[in-house]
Amino acid sequence: MDWNRYARSGELSTVSFREERAATVVLLVDSREAAYRAPDEDTPNAVERSVEAAGEAFSALLSTGDRVGIASYGPEACWLAPATGEQHRATARRLLADHPSFSVSPSEEPFYPSIALRRLRRRLPADAQIVLFSPATDDYIATVAERLNAYGHQLTLISPDPTTDDTATRRLARLERDTRLRRLRSHGIRVIDWGERPLAVELARATRRWSR
């Protein structure tokens, strides 16, 4: 993903020579119950923010000629294989708006994480880059990110921050999340810690750090 270009211009694309080969990107939204976190009742939860960001990324990447897909990691399985074209864009728009995976509240269906990860791995094209949208509120999703990256899928985590520091318990949750993000960075995973500022601003900060 060409995050430097996005930070400069707001245009999202992959780093590739389009006359030779378009990229394949899967946008993966963490829709487990643990991802439905928000700093307060009046703020969209992390899944809502992730779905909105995934929609923007999908449209931008499709417009630059890449094959783009959408998947969820949660109780309600969702998979849209990477493809191109206006019909594919319309299908993605409907999925993000209406699929139970992307509801504003968590599903009550049971979730079997190991089965879901195996299913996802079988579906992923071998050359797929992954953009994972997750608040990283628990260690398990960090392990999933590390495994997908280790399997050869270049992975970037965009992590909407749902934490606050107004109580001791919430301060601890924030510290644990910060530790989790540092752990992922130490494994070579690019992490965008997305706070209250627009995503483009956080990307600009992240790309400055990556370029050092």
Automatic annotation (TrEMBL):
<dbReference type="Pfam" id="PF01882">
    <property type="entry name" value="DUF58"/>
</dbReference>
<feature type="domain" description="DUF58">
    <location>
        <begin position="1"/>
        <end position="139"/>
    </location>
</feature>
<protein>
    <recommendedName>
        <fullName>DUF58 domain-containing protein</fullName>
    </recommendedName>
</protein>
<dbReference type="InterPro" id="IPR036465">
    <property type="entry name" value="vWFA_dom_sf"/>
</dbReference>
<dbReference type="InterPro" id="IPR002881">
    <property type="entry name" value="DUF58"/>
</dbReference>
